[in-house]
Amino acid sequence: MADTVTHPSPSRSTILITGATGFIGEHICRTLLDAGYRVRAVHRKSTRILPYQHADLEWVAGDFSNLHAPEQWAPYLKDIAIVINSVGIISETRYQSFQDLHARAPMALFQAAENSKVKQMIQISALGADQKARSAYHLSKKQADDALRQSSVRHLILQPSIVYGPGDHSMPVFQALAAMPVIPVPGSGQQLVQPVHVYDLAAAVLQAVQKPPKNNLTLPVTGARPLTIDELLQTLSLWYGKRKARLLHIPNWFMALMAQIGSLIPGALFNRETWQMLQAGNAADARPLEQELGVAARDLRDHYAPYSASTWQKLNSGLFLWRHLLTLSLALVWIASGLVSLFWARAMGYHLLARVGLGGVFMDLAFYGASLLDISLGLLVLKRYRPYTLAWVQTLLVGLYTLVISMALPEYWGDPFGAVLKNVPLISAFLVWGALEHAWQKQQSQ
What we know:
2 domains, 50% helix, 13 strands, alpha/beta, two-stranded parallel ribbon, Rossmann fold
């Protein structure tokens, strides 16, 4: 079935948690382990290094992109009393779709849980996965929720709003915006959000495990009070130590255009889906959570108000957005270099190759090959394809260009505009870009 890392004592029933290496799943897993429960945690097969170990923790490999039949889930459910599904993605990739991860795999898991006589199923859904759902994200979540409601398994569906806390992927976007001198606000800024701390969500799951509700329920999981996007950004601005937040509201038409462009860029956080969800708002009544599970969620303003952002937090927020600018800049350098060589500076290119000592067919191969290679590298950078490896490929290529120029055209080192000297900071930019993108992709894949 999977690679088992530890073998906890069989004397207690086990809780199965899917998405255990993700932001929400990891916090739920740690909370249950701290409470003394035994956990079987499902991780993606592509996760090379498991993030944490515990005597009562058993790791098993499983990919929601492929587990779409109930019989595939049967081995995972052996000796399982409770199942918690926390798998979720905010945007689709080539290998991960909303339908696969939010609908097909969970529905197969629910059927398998029913077949295996699992005592309780807890589904981590999303606020907005209801009759008003319009985005593909929410519709896929709703599809699984509806299937679970038809199941005979005792169940609880938790629908969290934006979840924040250590390791989250959503709040850093707002923090990065709030860190800017003038804060760009999408649309009117009056859209309501009600972020919930991941500790409160994990506490709700723990309460549901310890004292299961008498009836099958669907509960919104939100912070104590809603706030507008303007208020959220103003709160974060004060956290950064600013006296006053300068807000610049971006028209809806421009946001829609940026969303269209973002949808064409792999890994972009802002796309048609996220823009549609942001426009719809994300708030609900927080009282049912406390009434049913006894969890009084904290207010985001109370979480940020008592503290000031550290130097590292300010730096990290800046890097969150600057990495996108760095990606676009490096891609532009490569693509523009290739296009300029092909269409506007062909004579100069051939002249330089002749001075290097190339001629005939070798000159043609070098000219067209280098131009097409530059354009290809730019497209790969834009796609963020294997950034760590690609950073070193760029470094070696520019290093090779620099070496050839140094040997055949040494006078270019004395160019007053730094034609060759600019390669030094460019190489540094490659390595910084590779490290940032590699770290980001690693976090996203968990």
